[in-house]
Design goal:
Elements lengths: L13 H18 L1 E4 L1 H15 L5 H12 L3 H13 L7 E6 L9 E6 L21
Antiparallel strand pairs: 1-3, 2-3
Helix pairs in contact: 3-4
Pfam families: Ribosomal_L17 (PF01196)
Keywords: Ribonucleoprotein, Ribosomal protein
Family: Belongs to the bacterial ribosomal protein bL17 family.
């Protein structure tokens, strides 16, 4: 009987587990969703929630996320804006259970990022006034 066990070990050492969390989190932030096993999905949910929990200082959050995920400042600032767009107590990810994989019947789950980045407006450039010969 395991009491007070807070971490999901996923059959890995601590370093390998942290590397797995970082890799899954990077893919989630890049693509907005990913497909994995339900155990990994549940473990990833807590990791992402901790990343998106913001403080008052945006620069501190950018540096923290940038160092944890080993990404650039621009990508980290987008993640910080995702975290700030969430209301208090709102979950950042949704786990959707899928059908089992046909090859080995392993259970699958899709992890979706609920916070969306605000769409950047496309600037409309005027057509050039070059004259064409002809």
């Amino acid at each position: 009987m395991l009491k007070r066990v807070k971490t999901r070990k996923l059959g890995r050492s601590k370093g390998a587990r942290n590397a797995l969390y970082k890799s899954l989190a990077k893919n989630l932030f890049q693509n907005g969703k990913l497909e994995t096993s339900p155990a990994r999905a549940k473990a990833l949910r807590g990791f992402v929630q901790k990343l998106l929990r913001s403080t008052e200082n945006k620069v501190t959050d950018q540096n923290r996320i940038s160092s944890i995920l080993s990404i650039g400042q621009k990508a980290a600032s987008e993640i910080v804006t995702l975290g700030q767009s969430l209301s208090e107590g709102q979950s950042a990810v949704r786990i959707v259970h899928l059908n089992a994989r046909s090859g080995d019947a392993s259970p699958r789950a899709r992890v979706e990022l609920l916070a969306k980045t605000p769409e950047k407006e496309k600037s409309v450039l005027p057509k050039s006034t070059r004259s064409t010969k002809g």
